[in-house]
Amino acid sequence: MYADAAESMALNRSFWQHKYGAYVPNGALPGGDHRTDVLIIGAGYTGLNTAREIRADDPSVSVMVIDAHEIGFGASGRNGGFSMTLFGVEPEFTALRWGKDRTRQAQAYMQQAVGYTRDLIERENLDSDYEHTGMWRLAYSEKQEKRLRKTFDLLRDITDTGRYDYLDRNHLRQKLNIPNARAAIFEPDTGILDPCKHVRSLKRLAEAAGAEIFENTPATRISRDGNGITVETGDGRITADRLILATNAWSHTFRAPKRLRNRQRPVWTYQIVTEPLTEDEWAELGWQDRMSIEDNRQLVHYLRITKCGRITIGGGRVGIEYGTGMNLWHDDSVWTDLEKHFRWMFPSLGDKPIHYKWGGPVSVNLDMTPEIGFIGDERMIFANGCIGHGVSLTHLNGRLIADLVAGRETELTAFWIVNRKAIPNPPGDLMPYVAAKALEGTLKSIDWWEERGLKQA
């Protein structure tokens, strides 16, 4: 662990990166011309696992990975660590937008993704602090509980028996001292992990498979011709037969094809983490099952226990940036709201100090649905739109993309998010910004309506 938390926060490290401690990145790409069969831009979960899978399929294929920062600098090193089955924003939204059959397929894909991620960690003995603890989806108010019931009915309809249980207030309080909770959906087959430790482990796997990884190597321009795809990196140039854009929330920030730049925008989410709880505090609180928690608000909160005995909480209000900047790392007002909500949820921890605060962007597209596709022709592949639920999704997407690179038609490549007809963002910066702010305001109003009458902190 880095010694000074304030210094780490000032440097925009997540708690997980702070806790991991000093890290020595790989060197940047040397200047001059380079050649590789497959180039991957973005060294997060998607990029690293794709590299590992491609090399495992065919060690004769050369694979290079570059990242503008250190590996896992983006969402892969700063997320909440939830390996979950939530696809897009909500199953009801997916069913409304795409129909029940596709929602059923999406749910099956996400269940497979959680299993795939767990199997990878256990088979390769990754140092990820993984725990298969299950997850609660929590309602506070009567209106939230009514929506929760509808979600539960839909999930039971599109999944196998036993995937979900419905817990009433009495059952909840047997498991956790949480006075303001009314009901929850319990999903046993999900997990939690340390995002930063996990992405470092993925790097080691990708390198062991033979992939070359260069950190602090920003891509500045992409072009293509009959000789291949060329990516400029300042004083370096890489020519590749295939290019995979695993840039997610950063996809709009560099000179890339329009289809990539207008596909998504970053939305910033924030988290805080407590000091370690004492034995007496855990005894008062309960939470022996260590399940993760998301609430049933529109601007959702997410909570979990860390391996080192702390509680993290994130979510609530989001940050929306105008233009192509990526600078909303800090938001004191959101962090204050998170602390208030934490103390409202757990009155027994009303005086527990907050140890660390951080934020980061997630990739959100206009129709709130993950996407994998080709740009122009099959030489260029992109993936984005995780909507903040990408830990398990990005891992299985890596396997899917490896199949696309190899030209194989598999059960994964038949998944309907591949080359789906997506709704692009409006042109320019103003319209996407106004639309995002309007949506945020609408969701905030719904939460106010559903929670009016509740005594808040």
Number of domains: 1
Low-pLDDT segments, ≥5 res: none
Strand content: 15-25%
What is the name of the CATH superfamily?
Answer: FAD/NAD(P)-binding domain
User: Within the CATH hierarchy, at the fold level, what is the topology?
Assistant: FAD/NAD(P)-binding domain
What do the pLDDT scores average to? 93
CATH architecture: 3-Layer(bba) Sandwich
User: Which structural class do the helices and strands define?
Assistant: alpha+beta
Q: Measured on Cα atoms, how large is the radius of gyration?
A: 21 Å
Question: How many DSSP H or I helices?
Answer: 13
Terminus-to-terminus distance: 32 Å
Main sheet summary: 9 strands, mixed
- Top-tier CATH class: Alpha Beta
- The residue fraction in helices comes out at 25-40%
The shape is globular
What's the number of extended β-strand segments?
Answer: 19
Please characterize this protein's 3D structure.
46% of the residues are buried. The radius of gyration is 21 Å and the shape is globular. It has 457 residues and is of the alpha+beta class. Strands 4, 5, 6, 12, 13, 14, 15, 16 and 17 form a nine-stranded mixed β-sheet that branches. The chain has helices at residues 5-10, 15-20, 45-57, 91-98, 100-123, 142-158, 169-175, 195-208, 258-261, 279-285, 332-345, 391-406, 430-451; strands spanning 32-41, 63-66, 82-83, 135-139, 165-168, 183-187, 191-192, 212-214, 221-225, 228-232, 236-245, 265-274, 292-295, 301-305, 311-315, 319-320, 354-364, 371-375, 377-384. The chain has one domain (5-451): FAD/NAD(P)-binding domain (3-Layer(bba) Sandwich).
